[in-house]
Design brief:
The protein has 341 residues and is of the alpha/beta class. It has two domains: 221 residues, Periplasmic binding protein-like II (D-Maltodextrin-Binding Protein, domain 2); 106 residues, Periplasmic binding protein-like II (D-Maltodextrin-Binding Protein, domain 2, 3-Layer(aba) Sandwich), CATH 3.40.190.10. The chain is built from 14 helices and eleven strands. A six-stranded mixed β-sheet has the order 2-1-3-10-4-11. It has a three-stranded antiparallel β-sheet with strand order 8-5-9.
Amino acid sequence: MFRPPIPNLSSVVLAALLFVPFGAAAEECKNRGDLDARYCDDNVDLVADTPKESNQWLDPDVLIFSYTPVEDPSVYENVFTEFMDYLAKKTGKSVKWYGAESYAAQVEAMRSGRLHVAGISTGPTVFGVNLAGYVPFAIMCKGDGTFGYKLQLITHKDSDIKEVKDMKGRKIAHVTPSSNSGNQAPRALFKNMGVTPDVDYKVTYSGKHDNSIMGVANKDYDAAPIASSVLDRMVTKGIVNKSDLRIIWESQSFPTTSYGVVHNLHPDLQQKVRDAFLSFDWTGSGLDKEFGKQANKFCAITFQEHWQPIRLIQKENGVVYTQDALKGLKLKKKKKKKKSG
């Protein structure tokens, strides 16, 4: 499997300092919003503008594609095989897979210019936009154009946890700091129901939604906030028995994984990638087999409109989009790995 070298965080930051003329960018940029200092948003659509100078455009011979780190990355390479072949045909480029093992790794890879096209999970999409110049433009949807998933709070069927407030003092698994349904949304929503994470219960980060789900099924955790879409896929594939779990509470619908490109990809190439997503026929493909019960095509979206509720949740939680924040996400995950041996 092709795995492009992913630099550590310090090398990413160093490369940024060497490559980007911050002073000049600051003088020329009329609007930046929450974007990192290396990006500009003069058209005020909340994502990084494509650079005006053509010598800043990326036009690689090989496009690197990555899907959000859910379950086994190698499995999802096979799921996207037909789409990657189609993307190669539409763009005239070779397309290689990068199996990211964490949300932070995806953001770092795109920020460093080593990841060009990606599917990034709901909450981390905002980090990708602001820290890596990620421009989302598509989402998996049904034939009628609808899409979305819900935050579900699950417990084991034998648990005495019946409602949100019963989580006080229990062992609760969140996914990762940047995950929307696995952390950001619960932090914003649970406190309005009388339970404040890290105050009324200690948050334990599992690393992935499937880890949280299996942890509850195996009684390693008392409960966990997870994405309904991941639970549905795991039940369909026979990985977990839904009858072993009980859903205590669920939220309104949120957008699912976004798909997009790095902002400085050649404009013509950006358009070809976009066209590939929106014209791909799922029939008989790995995508159809894996996601067919939830979606059957890609639909166009904008970060400004469709990610508004996610931005509001993160604002409520006091999230800031900085290199320190990204470093913090990675350190927390490393710390958990060390504890688990």
